[in-house]
Amino acid sequence: MNMFLKIKYLLSFISRLILSVSLIILMSSYLSVRSDNDKVDSILSIYKDADKLSIPVSNVSFLPKPKISSRSWIIIDVNSEQVLASSNPDLKVEPASLTKIMTAYLIFGAIEDKRLDIDHNVVVSEKAWRTVGSRMFLEPNKKVSINDLLQGMIVQSGNDASIALAESMSGDEDSFVYLMNREAKKIGMNSSNFTNVTGLPDPCHLTTARDLALLSINFLKKHESFLHYYKQKEFTYNGITQTNRNRLLWSDSSVDGLKTGHTDTAGYCLVSTALRGDRRILAVLLGANNEAIRTEESLRLLNWGFQNFDTIAMFEDKDSRSLEARVWEGVSEKTNLRPRDQLWLSVPRGRAGDVKLVMERIEPLIAPLYKDQIVGVLQFSLDNQILKTINLRIQNSVNRAGLFGRVKDMIRRWFGN
Hints:
Blueprint: H1 2-46, E1 72-77, E2 82-87, H2 99-112, E3 121-123, H3 126-130, E4 143-145, H4 146-154, H5 159-170, H6 173-186, H7 209-222, H8 228-231, E5 234-237, E6 240-243, H9 248-251, E7 255-263, E8 267-276, E9 279-288, H10 291-308, E10 309-314, E11 324-328, E12 334-338, E13 343-348, E14 356-361, E15 365-366, E16 374-382, E17 385-394, H11 403-416
Parallel strand pairs: 11-15
Antiparallel strand pairs: 1-2, 1-9, 3-4, 5-6, 7-8, 8-9, 10-13, 11-12, 12-17, 14-16, 16-17
Helix pairs in contact: 1-11, 2-5, 2-7, 4-5, 5-6
C-alpha cells in the first residue's frame, strides 16, 4: 500500500511538472509570437516600396541604352512594371496635353463606378467654349454626350472637351484639379502638380517622365477596356473631322495608345504603348524638337524594348513547391508563399537562366498565419544587381493547433535549437 501511495505521489508530481513546463513553454511561445510580429512590422517598413517600379534592366544588359533626341524619356515593360531604360526620368517638365491622361483616368473611374453615364448629355458651359488651344469646336449651351466629349478630348485633344468633362463630374475645373492632385499622390506621382485639366502652360503645372509612366501603367491596368478611344484615328463633330495626333497608329498596328502633347515650352511629347503577343511596352518621351522626331524616336524605343528584352511569367502552379515553408504550432506543417499577383520578370534577352533568387522571411513561421499576410521578400538578381524585389505572402491561412500540437512543436523547436 505504501508503494502504491509513493507511485501515486510520483505520478502527481510528474503531472504538475509537465503542466509547469507547458505553461513556461506557452509563455515563451507568446513572447516568440510577439517577437515575430515585430519582425513583420520591420519587414513592412523596410520593403514598403517593394512592388513599385524597379531598377533599369538595361543596367545588366550588354547593349548600350539608345540615344534618343528628347529632354527626357523612360521605357517600361507593363507586365513586369520594370524600367527597361531611361534618361532624365525625374526631370520636372510641363506635360502639355499629356495632362489629359489623368483627366481621362478620373472620368473613366467615374463611369465604371456609375457616377457618370457615358450616354448622358451635358450642357456646354461658356468657360468650356471659350477655352483656347486645340478644340473639338463645342458650342455654348448646346448638349453633348459624355461619349462624344471623350472622343473630342482623346482623339482631337480638345481643351474645350476636357473642361466640359471636368465640369460634368465635379461641377467646376478647380474641384476636378483637386481630385487630380489627390489621385496623383495616391498612386505615387510625388513629383507632379496639376493646375488645370487641359495642359495649357502654367509654371506650376509640372510632372516627370517617371510619374507619367506610373500614371499610364495604372491607367492600362484599371481602364484597358477604354483603350479603343486611343486607337481611334479620327473623329467628326459639328461637321469638322480631325485626326488623332498619334502618328504611330498609322505606322505600327501593335500601337494602341496613348496620348500626344505639345506647347512651345513643353516641346513635342508622346506617351505611347504597344501590345505584341502577351507583352505590353510603354514609352514616355518628353521635349522632342518636332512631331516627326517625336514619332520616330517613340517607335524606336518601343522596338528596342520588344527586341532586346524578355519578360517571363514566374511561379506558375508547377513551381509553387519551390516556395514551400515549414509552419510551427499550426494545424498544417507546410504552407506556400506566393506574390500577391501574377509575377512577371523582365531580363535582357537570353539571360533568364542567369537570374538568381534570394528569399528573406520570418523564421520560424508560427501559426496562426493569415491569407495574404506578408512574411518576407523575394529578390531577383542578375550579375549581383537586384532586378526586382517583391513581397512574399501566405497563400492559405493556417490556424493554430490544439494545446498538445503546440506543446509538441515547442519541444521540437526547443531541442532542435
